[in-house]
Amino acid sequence: MEKLHTNPERLKKFLTEIAVFGATENNGVSRLALSDEDKGARDQLAKWFKEAGCEMEIDRMGNMFFIRPGKDRSLPPVMTGSHCDSQPQGGRFDGILGIITGLETVCALNDAGVQLERDFIVVNWTNEEGSRFTPGTTGSGVFAGELDMEEMYALTDRNGCTFGEELKRINYMGKKDFNPQPLHANFECHIEQGPVLENVGKPIGVPKGIVCLRWYDVEIQGVPNHVGPTPMNDRKDALYAFSCMNQRIFELGLAAGNVVASVGEVHATPNSRNVIPGHVKFTIDIRGWDEPLTDQVCTDIEEAINSISKKLGMSVNIRCVWKVRRAPFSPELVSMIHETAKELNLPAHDMVSGASHDTVYINQLSPSAMIFVPSIGGRSHAEVEETSWADCAAGADVLLNCVYKTANDPAGTAYTLGE
Length: 419
Ligand code: HGY
Ligand code: MN
Ligand code: MN
Hints:
By secondary structure, the chain is α/β, with parallel strands linked by helices. It has 2 domains: 8-211 and 326-407, Zn peptidases (Aminopeptidase); 213-324, Alpha-Beta Plaits, CATH 3.30.70. It is built from 12 helices and 15 strands. Strands 1-2-4-3-5-15 form a 6-stranded mixed beta sheet. Helix 3 (96-111) links the parallel strand 3 (78-82) and strand 4 (120-124). It binds (2S)-amino(hydroxy)ethanoic acid and manganese (II) ion (2 copies). Residues 83, 94-95, 128, 190, 357 line the site of one manganese (II) ion (MN).
């Protein structure tokens, strides 16, 4: 069968136009989950998929399912999807590329006059980033039965707005669940968000899976006091304690090799230049492919935090607020991506995903695999995030042909879950 191709100009047009929603002056996007900017992008996606002939379902978590009907609607469908929410100073490709390549796949199949055997579903998963509402991958996590919907509805942002209220406010709280399971196969096309593909000079990345992840919230209680009269040896400076802890967190992550440990958020109170900070709240993000090694680093970091706070005479509260086990992908679908890239004369590279994605949960329900494209300079979660239009089109072509293959599988074909 002749390979199918997407339309690079149309793909570029979709990506350029959707980036308007939350556009920042530095060529990035700020489209926080359930914000007005997120709503604007959602409304635009709904319009484009409707014009492309898709049905739409919205579930109670605001997940948007765009369905291209197949010949036999009783067959388990093929799915792809990602997220349209972004980091506060995010990029124009993270997440949204996975939805737009799904849209372009629909349009390319329409252009080719192809009706697939199976339904093809493109999903916008709610709140993947977890920046405004923690944890992340909230929509896909509830869909997979790993997160509780009522608990997610009660999540609050820094302004005290709850997830449920915001979902209602932007009018994306569906009235019922949508459950297309069992799924036949699930793909996600995503930027790599790291330096590997650029370093090896290949346009397609084929991760064997997604690393495991642990998120912590830590609070240090010191003593607020006047910076002037308080002797240096008589202080309980919570920000000083944090700085000692942060150094150990970095060093333990570095020493473990193949584990990452980062502090992303730090909030010092009262955050006034002439007051000794009495309270610090900070977050830790720890990840690794080797789950036991990652958990050992977690233990070492917790011990380091406790011993530093004890030595400095302060109290500390450490909470693990999110744990996600690693997601090994379906071996057959990983091979299919390699085979498809080869048929398209696109060099492909085996790797692991250091970033997490909605597929981390969907992989528990359905045989899944991901298609990566390079991030220029290895940068992401920053306004400079950039992927070449040619690489976006390459990823879209691989997705299109993998969808075509799996959605036309004879009934009875089965792929295995990763393990
Ligand atoms: O944090 C992550 O890995 C994802 O990009 N939200
Ligand atoms: Mn993402
Ligand atoms: Mn992200």
